[in-house]
Amino acid sequence: MPGPTTRPVGRRAVVLGATAAVGTALTGTARAAGFGWTDDGSNYVIDTGAQLVFKVSKSTGDLTSLVHRGTEYQGYGGMNSHIESGLGASTVTIRQSGSTILVSVTHGTLRHYYAARSGENNVYMWTNKADTSVSATRYIVRVRKGAFLNDEPDSYTYAPTAIEASDVFRKSDGQTRSKHFSKRRVMDYDYVGWSAGGVGLWMVRSNHEKASGGPFYRSLLRHQSADGGGLYEILYYGQNQTEAQRFGLQGPYVIAFTDGGAPSSALFPGTLTTPWADSLGIAGYVPASGRGKVAGVGISGRNTAYPYTVGLANTAAQYWGAARASDGWFSLAGVLPGTYTLTVYKGELAVYTTSVSVAAGATTTLNTIAIPTSNDPSNASAIWRIGDWNGTPAGFKNADLMTYAHPSDVRAASWTGNVVIGDGETAAFPCYLWKDVNSGILVYFRLTAAQAAAAHTLRIGVTTAYANGRPQVTVNDTWTSAVPSPPTQPNTRSLTNGSYRGNNHTFTYSVPASAWRTDTGQYNVLRIDVVSGSGTTGFLSAGTAVDAIDLLV
Length: 553
Description:
- By secondary structure, the protein is an all-beta fold.
- It has three domains: 14-277, Beta-galactosidase, Chain A, domain 5, CATH 2.70.98; 288-373, Carboxypeptidase-like, regulatory domain (Immunoglobulin-like, Sandwich); 377-552, Galactose-binding domain-like (Jelly Rolls), CATH 2.60.120.260.
- Helices cover 1% and strands 40% of the residues.
- It contains two helices and 39 strands.
- Strands 8-9-10-11-20-17-16 form a seven-stranded antiparallel beta sheet, with no helix packed on it. It has a six-stranded antiparallel beta sheet with strand order 1-2-3-4-5-6, with no helix packed on it. Strands 30, 32, 34, 37 and 39 form a five-stranded antiparallel beta sheet that branches.
- Strand 3 (43-47) and strand 4 form a beta hairpin.
- The longest helix has 4 residues, at 425-428.
């Protein structure tokens, strides 16, 4: 059988003939007809040999063109697709290795890479941020006007009125829109994008091993406006961030075109393998052989009403995976060598931690992890409890809406209103409390004579806070707690941009017996005020998100 043929297609070009599957992650060496690259003077032009041709600027490393089936999708507002808002002058080189073309971009200490595989409608990317000398917190694919339209929460095409920080908008019908309103935690998605007219354009995320914030972190994923759309891979995002920035190589993440359906699962984080990239010389690249694995045979002491997640984290990397519902078995593969803190989460509440070490090419096997009863605050006997301890405001009033809407959204139930224990108290209690909106909420409850004769501990669990907002409590207008110290929380917006996730913290208050009413026919009244000297007004006043509130036996 004759070998591949070569024909010139322009300056510094190589085109190899053969066929390959389209739109899947390939590991073989088959080459598609038309596969190769040219130099048009300003850009390297890469033809994947499938239905995708893209251009990379030779001077900046920007992605300047993204043509699928002859249609240009790249660009709006005269802007390219690029790292952050564009790197500026950079050193850009290109090299072909068999069925792979690699474009390397160097800008100071930062390295960025684009890779094309023969016969695939995909652009693979890696970014190595070595330090803070270069700003690189995201890659944004800028999609031109009219290619895809939607009115989802993370769009603002039909919401022209800005109501907060020029990035939260209100429509004429009172619904709110913002690029922050992604609704999803990072562990909840593998890809994000759009589909219309028989074409799907997607950003498939990386494994986020060099990102920050853990499995429950929320950040912007895409946006849609009258000018076009944006798809993001967030390398580091400071909004409501709980961790320091990590450095090193992040990727691959993938721009993928399809015939309208979802991208191939072979591209998903945790599934994608790239042995073809092992020898490309990507700075910071660690092949599968240089990684290890952590496996646990099970977790006991779980509350089976909740999902459990196992996370690994150190200053260099982070990983996570679900524990099996039946027995708590878990397996975390592709882990860089090192020593990590392993955390077991009930919902989003950390209930167990330990230290584990990972070696290249080896599996660290853990015996059954036993969660101590005292580690789960739900196990404490309570006279009454609002919500449950799972690290989230789930079940509280407006909690679901707040992951994809502003608190002022017309769909939100009133943030004010008092609560009676025994009368749907969780659904009636607002998920967020603000100093300038609903501080001073009252909780009514009765005690037996024996209960009223004793001191009790009151607990209020929070998931994050804005502007140092924290709860001070008063019982029956006769006893008021001290003002608690603010716990460490992110110092950016949170409650108004779709995120309740910060650092879980429990405030405890020792209420003396003298504070209770001795008439068992009367209600005791708990008042919860938000205190802080920070914040501004309204929904940007000091506030906090609630996990659970209970009065212990």
